[in-house]
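Sequence in, structure out.
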Amino acid sequence: MKALKDLMALCGDDPNRDGLQETPLRVLKAFLEYTEGYKEDPKEHLKKTFDVNHQEIVMVKDIEFYSMCEHHFAPFFGVAHVGYIPGSKITGLSKLGRLVEGYAKRFQVQERLTNQIADAIEEILEPQGVMVVIEAKHMCMCGRGIKKTTAQTSTTAVRGLYANDASARLEFLTLLERQSRY
């Protein structure tokens, strides 16, 4: 708590003034919420599986997430698009969202987040292929430093069939670009 008060003073404000007196505790509570992904192993969500004969893409698009840049403790946020071609089992669709959330709620870089999601799906579900695309805005780039407010970062991770078959990657990306009717 003292460190947060020192930080407020260093920035030029009085940590004892009316509006800031409870701020260190609020900041602590917020950071514990931002990083609650450390309290779980996100892969565990994928262990609930079903034997369903489905050999085509299973994709969940636009999974919203919020994370914290490990370099500046600044937020980054966006959407994850997660897809896989099942091997012998599938998992519940909500489990993919929980997986993204579990890894995002840690101090992160987008590149690692993208790979962690793909690696977990590959390890637990043993699919024919996995592809993850993440699109995010980073406040460490948009709100400070270079201040490029419209900049968006995209990262991908491909495993299995998607790594070796350009037509499979193209099918994934085509589905990703399609507008939903809902």
